[in-house]
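> run fold Putative NAD(P)H nitroreductase
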Amino acid sequence: MPDQTAQIVLDTIRQRRTVDLLKLNPDPVPDDVLEAVLTAGTWAPTHGKHQPWRFTVFTGEGRRRLADLFARAYAASSAKDAGSPEAQENQRVRVMKAPVWISLELHVPQPPRFPQWEEEHALAAAAQNILLAATAFGLASKWASGPAMISPLTAQELGAPELRGFIFLGYAAEQPKDSSRAPLAEKVVWVSE
Ligand SMILES: Cc1cc2nc3c(=O)[nH]c(=O)nc-3n(C[C@H](O)[C@H](O)[C@H](O)COP(=O)(O)O)c2cc1C
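> ok
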């Protein structure tokens, strides 16, 4: 049986759920919690210690800049309703529904030393650390990759060579829906002799 520390880690991993933006309450996230969550992100494994991640954190009134950026990026995207003023306004409104938005920016060292996928995966590991640390603090979260969130325009305005979406954080107004996974037997082959 896992000891107490292992059990806490396992429970946190199991409790993390992707939560809809509209299920958050407006409470802000304390700065020290955010710093701890971002620090957890930076402790992800990273080949050669390249640390190919950068994060831009939007909170409070700073979110209005992101809201404006998402509206413009959405308008420039290939989404079916990109030209719709209502859809663009919706992008703006949605940003204000979460108290914290964190960009997932990929900065591969130049010239590259390792294959791109290694740097991509390091960023993904950082993202997962952020999601788990947020869960440990009782925060709800989602890794979101909608058109505005991966847009080259959004990346450019953040000064990011590449963007792999955003994580938003906030406190859930209601118990998140549970998720499911395939049984281990479908995903794991054991070789023991
Ligand atoms: C790279 C990546 C991008 C994602 N983008 C979106 C997204 O744009 N919208 C969304 O609703 N969920 C997104 N998700 C979250 C998945 O939908 C979610 O993990 C899945 O539904 C399983 O739910 P769970 O995380 O609660 O187990 C993304 C997840 C990953 C890893």
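Residues 17-18, 142-146, 165, 179 surround flavin mononucleotide (CB under 6 Å).
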